[in-house]
């Protein structure tokens, strides 16, 4: 590949002050960095995050009390799970508040919600948001570009965890109840917040699905998590950068939860309850540990991912409404729409990086300019 012609911005040469700026990542000459917003102190961020966590936890406790009809439908045997979800709510609210307090995440968060509630965007592309939710959050098509096997495994883990959460959380909080008028079935009624939703025969296919939904979720999770564990044991690239607490612990937790859950079903059906109490305690400990771990480990990306949909919508709609597309100041190749580049520059100013001007160059030209600056101002000192 040949180097693009120099048309607007010449490559900095010796003695050019722009070269030093490129070599160190500083601002372009004659363009002083704009002052960003006053940074928040870590103590202030922690106080606000603690308050947000406390408020969310209290709201969840209130929802549990009233959703279970003043605890009439609450199963005291599930109390450890319910307490763990309260800690989960506090941890997620705390970590999320800290995350959005960072300049880059705050700008992403605001721009995403602005695009989400934009009536103009809805009129211009009414199907864009549902499509992105389905493809970006649901089926995560962007993972397929990396590896079809990783995409399939990720789908198994995602839908398995989603199914398990949809069943476990409402049951833990006492929002869902299954009752039988005869006390032993086979006819059951599913009630939500005390209101009958449907009746079913526990011996039929639908009844089997209702009572074994967690087993189905466990099989999906075991298949997906096992692939990722195998990959992290065999793939050299994954082995090089992996950390036990961050990369392996989440997968081990998912496997332990799923296996102990399946063993509970195996014990009740084939062993007549043999070892059930020990397995129940082991399963409860693994679930509680994982719920408390979620906000502070790799699983937190589950909470962060929806915020990225707003930015994807922002990029999509800005390209559809014929916004000006900025070109590289050096090779004139298109970079992105003006609103997106301006948003990136604003984030860089918020972070006080002092080289937001270079967002107007394509990645290749930035590498060329930086390499030339290094050769002219750094390497020549060793000759």
Give a verbal description of the structure.
This protein has 383 residues and is mainly alpha-helical. The protein has 15 helices and five strands. The protein has a three-stranded antiparallel beta sheet with strand order 1-2-3. A two-stranded antiparallel ribbon has the order 4-5. The longest helix is centred in the last third of the chain and has 27 residues. The N terminus is likely disordered.
Short synopsis of the structure:
The protein is 63% helix and 6% strand. The protein is mainly α and 383 residues long.
Contiguous helical run count: 15
Order of helices and strands: HHHHHHHEEEHHHHHHEEHH
Helix content: 55-70%
Return Rg in Å: 27 Å
Keywords for this structure?
383 residues, mainly alpha, 15 helices, 63% helix, disordered N terminus
Give the SSE layout.
Layout: H1 17-24, H2 42-67, H3 79-101, H4 103-116, H5 119-124, H6 128-138, H7 148-173, E1 176-179, E2 187-192, E3 195-201, H8 205-211, H9 213-234, H10 236-241, H11 244-270, H12 276-293, H13 301-320, E4 325-327, E5 334-337, H14 338-350, H15 363-377
Antiparallel strand pairs: 1-2, 2-3, 4-5
Helix pairs in contact: 1-15, 2-3, 3-12, 4-13, 6-13, 7-9, 9-11, 11-12
